[in-house]
Amino acid sequence: MNKAKLLAEILKPGFREHELMRDHTTIQVGGVADFYYEANSIDDIVNAVKAAKKICLPYFILGGGSNVIFSDYGFPGLVVKNNAKNISFMNEKSQVIVDGGVPMSKLILEATSNNLSGLEFLYGIPGTVGGAVYGNAGAHGQSIGDFVKNATILIPGEENEEPQIIQVDNKWFEFSYRSSKLKKIPGLKKPVVLTLKIQLAQNRQEEIMRRLNSVKKTRWDTQPVGMSAGCIFKNPLPETLVNVSGRGSKNMPEFPKERTAGYMLDHAGAKKLKNGNVRVSSKHANFIVNSGNAKAQEVRQLAEQMRDVVQKKYNVNLNEEVEYVGQW
């Protein structure tokens, strides 16, 4: 039995072959994935990973499509779109249990309706809760890792092992700046976030809305609207820069303005850079914008140019925040 037929029988509705990945990412670049599956529940995700593992097929769990750049050559395996969207509030404990596929802004707005506060700093980020935890998303001196209490994780296991669903606490994730344990485990061994328990705090709805409006305005004023993957580079970590202050959490240091990637890129002249159908945003020098019909290779080449101008001016090597996926 060939792989396509086997996957189609196991996954059934929501399974497709030869899916163009540019249609599923915010920057809208990327080639064709061999197989694609819309998983609408936790069981769907588990079944998809088990099926891929059974036939030794690479898989990638896709959230909202931000911070991800698929190769022009596509993905030689199964892309699983996480659409699991259950949310359950425990107001007496100021906690929420949420599926990894829930859009971050949806969670924040529903938390606001329940007078629960904490994640406002992530409002407007075009991604899912699972994706945010995967990359320990953050802003304004805070990161989502600080709010994760525990989680249900799918562990694929070794080649001859059956995947297992386990409960893990916050420490398991090894959260660090813009990273987690999930990012560091390769290929078929990469765990998958199924559900998360997040600790929030009671607050007045009016105060939460005030914060949301402030965050929304800041993002609107400082970040481009359109086809973009989000910030291309992380801010340089304290060990690579001298005299970096750290007011924020241990996972999300707050950098002096002149030590952020955006500032360095701006003052190194990155806003003048372009490559084919992509250019550096005139609004924020750490964003690459797709002007239309761009190729993934154009994005990556432009990112290298951006890195080079900062290296030349500041002798600082910037590391990507975005993830390059597929064959490059």
Automatic annotation (TrEMBL):
Cell wall formation. The lineage of its organism: Bacteria, Candidatus Berkelbacteria. SUPFAM superfamilies: FAD-binding/transporter-associated domain-like, Uridine diphospho-N-Acetylenolpyruvylglucosamine reductase, MurB, C-terminal domain. NCBIfam families: murB. It is an enzyme of class 1 (oxidoreductase). Residues 29-203 form the FAD-binding PCMH-type domain. It catalyses: UDP-N-acetyl-alpha-D-muramate + NADP(+) = UDP-N-acetyl-3-O-(1-carboxyvinyl)-alpha-D-glucosamine + NADPH + H(+). Pathway: Cell wall biogenesis; peptidoglycan biosynthesis. It holds the Pfam family FAD_binding_4. Belongs to the MurB family. This is UDP-N-acetylenolpyruvoylglucosamine reductase.
